[in-house]
Amino acid sequence: MKITVNGNGLEVQDDVKHIKGLINFLELEDKPLIIEHNQQILQKEEHEKAVLESGDKVEIVHFVGGG
Fold first, then answer.
1. Distance between CA atoms of 22 and 52, rounded to whole angstroms?
2. In a domain, 67, yes or no
3. Could you tell me the superkingdom of the organism this chain comes from (predicted)?
């Protein structure tokens, strides 16, 4: 399935069906994230329910510490 993540095309396996699966696929599960799925900001508890479909647009913001 082809989706867009942060403006870049990405091909994901068919078993990546939800936002939670995408987070795991991208190895971001241990980071604090803000996820926008098709211009809708998702709460963390919605990650397992939000279904991905071909052509979806996802924006992922994660925070980097520093000083």
1. 9
2. no
3. Bacteria
User: Which range marks the domain in which residue 52 is found?
Assistant: 2-62
Tokens of 63: 């925070």
Name the DSSP letter for residue 43.
P
pLDDT in tens, 22-32: 999 999 999 89
Q: Scanning the structure block, which residue is given the tokens 């991208």?
A: 26
Residue found by looking up tokens 């604090």 in the block: 32
What CATH number did the domain enclosing 56 receive? 3.10.20.30
Q: Do the Cβ atoms of 9 and 34 come closer than 8 Å? A: no
Q: What is the pTM of this model?
A: 0.89
Domain count, the chain: 1
d(CA 61, CA 59): 7
